[in-house]
Amino acid sequence: MSETTATPPTGATPGQQPDARRGAAYDSAFLRACRHEPVPHTPVWFMRQAGRSLPEYLKVREGIPMLESCMRPELVKEITLQPVRRHKVDAAIFFSDIVVPLRAVGIDVDIKPGIGPVIADPIRSFADLERLRPLEPDDVPYITEAVGLLVDELGPTPLIGFAGAPYTLASYLIEGGPSKNHENTKAMMYGAPDLWAALLDRLAGITAAFLKVQIEAGASAIQLFDSWVGALAPDDYRRSVMPASTKVFDAVAGYGVPRIHFGVGTGELLGLMGQAGADVVGVDWRVPLNVAAERVGPGKGLQGNLDPAVLFAPTSAVETKAREVLHAAQAIGSSGHIFNLGHGVMPSMDPDALSRLVAFVHEASAR
Ligand code: CP3
């Protein structure tokens, strides 16, 4: 913790001292914005900033399968640092994947290039559920080690830990892989509500444990990715998903690290996703941030929300659209906005366009 800081982070359990290793990043623009404190400029980072858009990433990953690369701490450290060095983003996101904790408890899952996570035996019955045992920190020693290495190296740059939310993980486990319509997932949600609730509850436990490992090793914020929850209507979300996501947020509330909640196509769910327990709500590009601010309500930060495809347009168009995002964010006041894309960096994006965007956001938002 820095010498100038007198108060513990928002949400810290009384008497609980923040981990000293988290301290160096405490006054970073990113963590200050998460806490609605004044910032020198709007902080910016990109979902999927560590990955295939970077030639240096492709080089170090050569010949190493995705999930194996997540289990090599030195490699994880290098890949996580690459976009920080290159783009000068305000935060690092830990290089891993949402299915890593599932593999760690023994689920036969692989990530197929160009497809995504594929599950050998989908989960469709109470008997299948027994394969989802709780996650213990000893199951993921490589995560603890990689986070520790990173926090030492990052110094004042915050490290964002992350996990997949129960709904998004359930959709992969039930469908057996990526799915457009989530038909098996919804069939279970509507047709076997007890099995559905038991599955989401188990996943909430695994997700919470995975986040705790990252926070205890020194991550200074966390993001819960519910990428595919936009497939649901608000009533179904409230009834069938929100309790499990709330369980995850409650489980990590005592650490006092900011909790970000993100999904795609979630315009109608933004208010509920905030209520689920987030400090900051991620917004995709379909809802302007001033409208999102009304839906989320006061007291929460917003993250987003430039359309990733804009990065394929000329620099002047990128800057016009980025300025619109910064302007719309003023609806929540002078702090509380974290600039990001509305979804992840695409592999075919020009890394230089991303670096230029970071510099532009810093300059255009300088206070
Ligand atoms: O830079 C970062 O954001 C950190 C790393 C990160 C990865 N996956 C690395 C990765 C993060 C935060 C994730 C989260 C993740 N994984 C999500 C939620 C984020 C989102 O985009 O909505 C989801 C849905 C997954 C599941 C998953 N894993 C998908 C859909 C894919 C892409 C498949 C493909 O080939 O197009 C993966 C693989 C994956 N995870 C890659 C990376 C860098 C690409 C694999 C590779 O480089 O070989």
What does this structure look like?
- The chain has about 375 residues and is an alpha/beta fold.
- Helices cover about 45% and strands about 10% of the residues.
- A hairpin with a 3-residue loop joins β2 and β3.
- α7 crosses α10.
- The structure holds coproporphyrinogen III (CP3).
What's the CATH architecture?
A: Alpha-Beta Barrel
- What compounds are bound to the protein? coproporphyrinogen III
Strand order of the largest sheet: 1-4-5-6-7-8-9
The main β sheet shows up as:
7 strands, parallel
Key features of this structure:
single chain, 367 residues, alpha/beta, TIM Barrel, two-stranded antiparallel sheet, 11% strand, disordered N terminus, binds coproporphyrinogen III
In short:
Helices cover 44% and strands 11% of the residues.
List the SSEs and their pairings.
Blueprint: H1 29-34, H2 55-61, H3 66-69, H4 73-87, E1 92-93, H5 100-104, E2 109-112, E3 116-119, H6 126-129, H7 141-154, E4 159-164, H8 166-175, H9 183-191, H10 193-217, E5 221-225, H11 234-240, H12 242-253, E6 259-262, H13 270-275, E7 280-282, H14 289-296, E8 301-306, H15 315-329, E9 337-341, H16 351-364
This protein binds coproporphyrinogen III (CP3).
Coproporphyrinogen III is lined by residues 47-52, 61, 66, 93, 95, 97-98, 111, 113-114, 116-117, 162, 225, 227, 344.
